[in-house]
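Page header: ASSEMBLY MODEL / three components / 1001 residues total.
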Amino acid sequence: MEKTTLQKRSAAIIRRNRKKAYLFLLPNFLGFFVFTLIPVITALVYSLTDYDGNNRMNFVGLKNFLQLFSDSSFVFSLQNTLIYTIVTVPLIILLSLLVSVLMNNGVKGAPIYRAIMLFPHIASIVAVTVVWQFLYNAKSGPINQILQTFGVDNPPAWLSNQKTALIAVMIMIVWKGIGYYMIIYLAGLRGIPADQYEAATVDGANAWEKLRYVTIPNLRPVTFYATIMCIINSFQVFTPIYVMTKGGPGRATSVLVLKIYEDAFVNYKFGYASAEAMILFLLILIVTLIQFYHNKKMEA
Amino acid sequence: MKKKLVSILMASLMAFSLAACGGGDDKDKDSSGKTTLRLALWDYDVDKDMYDPIIEAFEKENQDIEIEIVSSPNADYETKLTTMLSGGDDIDVFFAKSNTALPGLQAKGYCMNLSNLLEENKFDTSSYGTVLEQQMTFDDNVYALPFRTNDWVLFYNKNLFDKAGIAYPTDQMTWQDVGKLAKEVTEKSADGVYGYSFQPKVGFIFPMLAGTMDGFDITTSDLSCTTTALDWILDMQESGAMEEYSESVSMNKDQTYFYNGEWAMMWNGSWFVQSLNLQENLGFEWGIVKSPYWEGTEKNGFVTSTPLCINASTKHAEEAYKFLTFSCGEEGASLLAKSNLVPGYMNDTVLDSYKENVGLDESSLNALMDNTTYSFGEPNNVFSEIISAGQKEMELVLTGNETPEDFVKNFTEQRKELIDNAE
Amino acid sequence: MKKTSGKKIIFVVIKYAVVLLITISMVVPFIWMLSASFKTNLEVFEFPIRWIPETIHFENYTNVWDVANYPRMFLNTVKLTVIITVLQILTSTLAAYAFSKIYFPERNVLFLTYLATLMVPYQVVMIPQFSIIRQMGLTNTHLALIMIQAFTPMGVFLIKQFFDGIPDELIEAARIDGLSEFGIYSKMMLPLSKSAIVSLAILTITATWNDFLAPLIYISDKNLYTIQLGLRNLCSEYTTEYGQIMAASVMSVIPIFILYCFCQRFFEEGMVSGAVKG
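Prediction written out in full:
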């Protein structure tokens, strides 16, 4: 992306640019450095120690990392996190793309629908989770009552069944997430130049072809942003599970961050918890890099 | 040049953060020269009536000390406490959630070793009974004092038994007897009434499993004995004498349902006496009998306690010690007893104060006295992790996802894994 | 008007069906919440659902209002939200401008550092962050919440993505015209990226408004409580007061919803101006 003309400029200009850049960066970087970067680096150091929050910490090398894979709770949480991400991210992205394209196509009352669809996203997660917990109630919850009137004799016990608990959480997250990504997509859709559609019409493209060859390629940067954010968010899902199930029943809905939380705050194993977090960090990094290079290749 | 700029930037950042650090002055002593002690606890609004008299009395007696309460929601107390302790916050005195949480806190060095202080001040610890030795002592050193102790006993709703025309529960029933009784009550009562219930939280059910064998130790014992208890629970759920655990949980059910007259019997700690007495217009009479036990075991009940600790890194050790021995000593205990809770500190004065204020009939009072107890066994550095793993597995049995046999197998495996990994 | 073909009608029907279905599924839980907040505990789980309760139990609200000191929490939350959002927008746009429009050798490394910290779960950062805040003497102050939430890398990332879409040629032209960098930033970039800024504002407002973990950790004094912390407290202390819990939940979402309805106009404007960038 860099302008080759820029690169050829003399060192003096680079120096001047650098000074300007740092001036712009400074206010944000100060806060970022003190309250995000230092803590992150500290956590990184912890992952190589047996730090427990109080006693002297000892350097233990990679011991924490080696132990991870004989820790069945960790493996379990890792699995759950992957399942959770693989299911929710595509669903959220596809559904929000679908809705935004339809809404952009001209729907009467679109602002109202949009307001309603964004509501789950802006509503507090604590409030939303409390409501869903009641909705999911096995015997007297509205969801199962409705299922029963539709002739489902044995509706699932949702949050208390090992097999459906994670699904129940995922449904809520998709429900909560669509609105936000729809707004992102709508912003992207408005940014597509009308002349491209006109040109496509002249070429005799039908609606599907316009979507395939004009809309989706133009939305690539938006999709890049949305997917990365969505993946990062689902790798890091915590509050809804913490409030709704605390990982239960058993370990059925335990995800990585919940496990990290438990190890750090209940078992005081900060070193170990940081090592788990580094695995999570690596996972997210890999996904981002894949996306990043994929995106670059498409642009080139 | 590049390096220079970066280093200037870094240096200014450091200066900034250092300068900001310097701003962190303690406000320990205010203008009147009072020392402020910060006390960490949970759900203060619920337990106001318990804490306030003690704190007021303490501040009256020690004009130079002020207590500042740091409260957090019950479910988030661990998060808050851990952050405060390990982040170096100036917490002086704190409650551990229960005696099972204490070994973890002690092992990390958060609790001050009290042995020397107690000795120097010639503080008489004999009034704490065996709890101090069993639950607060590690390697012969005392790290906490028991603020409250709770004998686990069986509470019952007399009206429901009267209505059903069934005799009240008695002391020294087996769990099997309780099961039979619960089924009878359920059968002869209106819809929506359950003969028996736990507080539907794993922590309130799990202790029952430890009673299935004499001398049970959760770290070493063969776990197959626990199937007796699990089978009992499943049978209760199936017969409808107890509401399904999953249903109770998803409705956030708690003792309110006992207040509402929907549960005829409930196994709970003695703190429940206070909660029941605080209810206005309860609309029914209730009673207490001793904890049920399992056939073939000794007649033991379960006991838990609420430890009060001094933060090992407090700057006000002297004042904190004063507060600790006040609240867990005779004065605090008498006040606690007045609010119908069983203090960890127990002597004749305190006992009289409890009896006088609690308003229990002779037989109920008797149920709370002279109980022999069992526990989860010897605390160790993975103690609370093992208990928590066991609770999670048990939840799977209660929700019908696993059989009791699965529980034994899986829990044994996880226990081994936790012990192995800790070495 | 053109003659509409059969295919088109089917498409329109499907279009409305999908949009309506999703809209309804989005709103029903909230209506249930609203309706439950006016019911007694027993009525909450009645079936068939009585959407409009027989008698309106408004005391759920008055109880919550009194117990939780709602007005105080409301003011606290508003204050925090406004300050954090303003700081976030100001510093993020400045930083994003440097990352997107000024070429300097370390920019990729620095930007990647920003991105990388986004990927570390907050739960691990919490402890070291707490130590720093404590050493500054900021625990149990609102300033602590402001400091840790106003400079998140998220905002920089979002704005940079939008800035990248604005052609560099435009900037070059302005530079040649003799506009200073700050002039370009304030007179060109900001107006051009209104939509992105509004998005960031909404994102920050909702995140701040709804955050409960940070207030939980840093705030102890009841007078400094935010709405979410108050809600969580209430849920912990009154677990089976279903009606009241619902009332408290409604009260925690209503203000932000009203704000959103009001902001929708700005949102529209932001999108129109965003369309210019193509």
